[in-house]
Write the structure tokens for this entry.
Amino acid sequence: MENKIKLIPLVLVSAVLVACGSGGSSVNGNPIDVVTPPGEIVTPIDKETKIKATPDSPAEIMQSESFNFSVTRDSGSADSIVVMANFVSGAYSGDWVIISEPSPCNLSLAGTTSCHFSAFSSSQLRFDASLAKVLPLSYAVVNNSSYEIKVTARTSNNVQVESSPVLDFTLYTPVTNLGAVVDQRFTVGEGVESECITDNLTGLMWPKNGRLFNPRNLDDALSLVDNMNKISGAIAYGLCGHKDWHLSTVNELASLLNHGEKDPVSWLNDPKQGFINVQGSYKSSTSYVSRSDYVWYVYLYNGDIKPFNKNNDRSVWPVRRIK
């Protein structure tokens, strides 16, 4: 809001200054007083103290993933500032929650100088669990929704810090759709991709082997998948010639469910589909909002999707998105 400056007659100003015994600003030696018209709120801005928001997630995330970013402060006049982040646009932004670590995010020159933020949907399974058990499951072309997050900060005496640019990302959402039909659901790769299978409905590529490894906990799983994308490492084979594998989210795993089959695991292990060693349940990379030590699990043998301890040594299944 633009501040308005009103020049009061000099005689009146002098009287006010004498009566109040206070000092004031001056122009060419003549005192003036800054008056805010009724109803207006002056919001001073500290332009010396700046904050910087840096995305830790790619610009396109899958439904049920969180969008992560870090906020740091440059040196400035303010000893301490409180950082806040809010959605300014997005189709379902009202369903999202933004948290910081630590919380609240207080940044100071002498102490904490950065915070980690995560934005996640408070209704993570809306597109899957609400429909998948009612309709035959088939995934259509993805719907994309764009979101924008504004990061702001204030000093301890409520002075606004110069705001950072808006962060933006796109949510990549598979939707259950009766009209989604393909001639062939899965295609086994050829040549260097012979150990991988492409899902023609979702555009996801899966390792043919549903049990590449059995990690001890979530951190172990993330490390093993990370090694898949390296030239050297414990499991460094650049599966199918690709180095952009990630630990599957709950929605990506749920896309493999076939509620038209009595035994979805046997259906996936059938030579017609092409997979081998598909397990009855898998641990996803999707955090459970209510408990930090839980993630979502997908039980392929009966179609359940439930949260459970992330340190359980359940199987995981890497996946990659075909660009």
About this structure: The longest helix spans residues 10-20.
